[in-house]
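Aim 2, interim progress. The first record below pairs a target sequence with its C-alpha cells.
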Amino acid sequence: MTTRPTQPIAIRTDLGAIFVSMELSRSSWLLTSLSPGNGEKMSKHSVPAGDLVGLLTLFGKLRERCEAKTGCDYPIVSIQEAGLDGFWIHRALEKEGIESHVVDPASIAISRRRKRAKTDRIDGEALLRTLMAYKRGEPRVCAMVRAPSPDEEDRRRICRERKALIAERVTHVNRIKGLLFSQGVTNYQPLRRDRRQRLEELRTGDDRALPAHMKAQICRELERLELLIDQIKAVEEERDALIAAQAAEAKPSAVKLLLAIKGVGAEFAAILWSEGLFRHFDNRRQVAAYAGLAPTPWQSGSIDREQGVSKAGNPRLRTTLIQMSWLWLRHQPSSALARWFGERVQRNGGRMKKSTIVALARKLLVALWKYAISGVVIEGAIMKST
C-alpha cells in the first residue's frame, strides 16, 4: 500500500487560462473544462454537434463564472483531436480570438492494460491533461497538428478526387470483364474508344450472341464508365491549370522544379507538392516522419530490432513515394540513389527488394525536398530537355 506525501513534491503553479477539451461526435460535443479558482475539479458540458453559437456561448459563460470567482478575466485554451470534423472548428475558434490546438490522437499516451475503460468522459479528461502538459512545455507529450490554410486544403481535392475516380473506374472495368468472362469472352477492353461497337460484335464462347439482359447491364456499366472518364479528364484539366499557374510565377516554384526531373510527371509533381512539400520542415527527419517513412526501433535491454517504417503519416504521400521509387530506378538508373539501391540489393544476394525500396523512398523524399525547397540538385539525376 502506497502512502500519500504530506507535502507536494512537484512545484504547482496556478492556472493562467481556462483549459477546455472537446470530444466531438456526430450527435453532441462533450466539453471538459478546468478553470482557475475551481480547484482540481473538472467540469463537464455538452452542446449539440455543429452548434458553433452554443459553443461560443458556453465559452463566454465559463469566462464569466471564472471572473466572478477570481476577479480576473482569463483566456480560453482549447484542444480537439484531428478527425472527421476537419479543421473548420479550429479555424472558427481562432477567428474569435480563442487559442485552439488540434492534436494527433495516436500520439496521446494511454493505459497499456489489455482491458481498459474508455468513455468520452475519460477521453476528455485525458485530452485536458495532455493540453496542460503541452502548455507547461513538457517535451514530447503529444504531436500537435499544423492545420493547413483553406487554400492549401482545397488544393488537395484535385489529386484526391482523381485517385477516387480512378479506383471507381477500375471497379467498373473489372465488373464488365467479369460479366463477359462468365460467357467465355476474354479479349474485350472497356477503355477502348470503340468499346460500344465491339460490344455489338461480341460472341460468347459457344458462338452465341450476348444474352439480352447481360448486354443491357453492360451498356449501363459503360454509361457509368464513360461518365467517370469525362470526370477524370475534367479533374486532370484542373490539375494542369493549377500547375501551369504555379509554373508561370516569376519565382521558381516547387512544382516547376519537380517537373524538370526526368520521370516526374504532372500527377507525381502535384501530389508531392499538395500533400507534403508545401509545408515547412526543419530537418530531414521531420520530412520522413510526415510521410510515415521514419524507422521504428524496438530496444529494451539486450533486445534491439527494427519494426520497419512507422506508417504514422500521410498515406497518400507515402504510397506515391513507393510508386515513384520503382519508376526512379527505370528513368534514373545512373543517379546516386539508384546505384545505392543496386549495391544494397546485391549485397543482400538479390533479396529484400521490397524493404530496400521503402528505404529508397525515404531517401528520395528527402532529396526531392532539398531540391524543391533549396535547389540542391540530386546527384546524378537526369533533367528533362527544354
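The second target in this work package is listed in the same format:
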Amino acid sequence: MQKGMHTDTERCVRAVQSKDARFDGWFFTAVLTTRIYCRPSCPVVPPKAENMTFYPSAAACQQAGFRACKRCRPDTSPGSPEWNQRADLVARAMRLIADGIVDREGVPGLASRLGYSTRQIERQLLAELGAGPLALARAQRAQTARLLIETTPLPMAEIAFAAGFSSIRTFNDTVREVFALSPSELRTRAPKKGTTVSTPGALTLRLPFRAPLNPDNLFGHLAATAVPGVEEWRDGAYRRTLRLPYGHGIVTLTPNPDHIACRLTLGDLRDLTVAISRCRRMLDLDADPVAIDDQLRTDPVLAPLVDKAPGRRVPRTVDEAEFAVRAVLGQQVSTAAARTHAARLVTAHGEPLDDPEGDLTHLFPSPQALAALDPDSLAMPRTRRATFTTLVAQLADGTLNLGVEGDWTETRARLLALPGFGPWTVDVIAMRALGDPDAFLPTDLGIRKAAQELGLPSTPAALTARAAAWRPWRAYAVQYLWATDSHPINFLPV
C-alpha cells in the first residue's frame, strides 16, 4: 500500500463498492449527502461515487463536520498499518498519540519527545492526516469514551475523566458531535449481552484486526517465553501484568477467528487507551497481512510456507525496556534458562500485585529497580553481567530510550555501542521492541537451520543478500522461517 491512499479516488471507490475490509483503517469514506463517514467495508448500500470523498483519518472526517456511521462504527477500525511500518516523524508522532502522550503532556510534551517544534509537528500531521495532534487525540478520546459507555456500568462523569476529557460538558458535546447521539443514548443502543462486568476496574472488549491472522506463532511465542509471575497461559488465553502511566493492570487476551477478546483489569481507568494501544502493538494487530504475504510469496522458497499458514504476525512487547532486559538474559542460553533468570529478577525486584483470576504476582522490575541491584547477585558470567548493568543504567537515567517515539536507526547505533551487544541482540530488540518490520536475524541459529533445510544460503552474508527481495518485511520472513521448526514458540499451547 502506498502512502496517502486516500488521494487515489478511483482505488478508494473500488474498495468501497466491493466492501473490502482489507482497507479498513487505511482511509475513511465521507458521504457528502448524509454528512456521515464510514469504513470501506460498511454494510450499507454504497453511495454514488460523486457523493464520496476520502480522508486519511477519523479525526479529519470529524474536523470536516462528518459524523460516525452507526452501522459500521468506523471509529473501531484497525489502526493504519502506516504507523507501525514507518519510522519518520509522522509515524512516530502517531505512535505517541496512540500511547496517550497528548492527553498526559499536551502538544508541547509530544513535540519535546520528538525533538521538533509544535509548529513543525502540527504542520506535518495536518498535511498527511488532515488533522493536528489535538484533533487526533480528541478522536481517540471519543473512541475511548464510547468503549467505556458501552461496556461498563460506570457513571458518565467517571467515564468523561477516564477517557481524558477535561470537563463533563466537553465530553457530552464531543460524543454528541462525533456520534450524533448523547452518551446516554449510546448506552441505550449498546448490545446488552455479555458487555457489562461487575469487577471494579475491569472491562471486556474486542480487538479487531485485518484477516488473515495466524495465532500459532504469535501466542505460541508469548506463551513459550512467558516469565512466571508476569505472564501465563491459562484457559486458552495469554495473560500478563502491565505497568501503565497511572497505575498497573492485568490483561487477558484470547484469540478468536475474527477478533482478539481482551479483558482488562485496571487500577486506574485513565490507562485504558494506553493499555489497548500497547496490547494491539504487542500482537501486531494493525499489520496488513495481505501486502506482507504477497511480497514474501514472490520468493518461490517462501511461497509454500506462506500458503500453508498465512497471516503470521511478529510477536512484540508491551514494554520495550523490559524486552531489552530479557533479550540480554536470553543471550546464548535456552528459552527455559532465560525464563528462569527473568523469574528470579521478578521475585526479587518486581512490584507485587494481586491477581484474583490466576497466578500473576508481579510487575516486571523497572529499569530504576534493576539499576539499584547488587551486580554480584546476578547468576551469569561476568561479561554478560557487565552488559546487563550497563543496559539498565542507561535505561534508568534516560541515556537510552526505546520508546515508540525513537528513531530506529539512531537507537540501533546506541544499542550496538553497548558492551556485549552484537547484531543478534540489536536486531531482536529492533524486531520485537522497536517494531521495525524489516529487522532481520541472519545469525540466529533457528534461521540458519531453516535456511539450510530449505536450500537458502545459510551464511549470514549470503542469506542477507538473498533476503533483500523480502524487504521491507524481513521480520515477517523470520516468523515463517522459524515456523519450519518444532520449537514450542510455533504452536498454540494445548
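The longest helix spans residues 133-151. This observation will shape the mutagenesis plan for the next reporting period.
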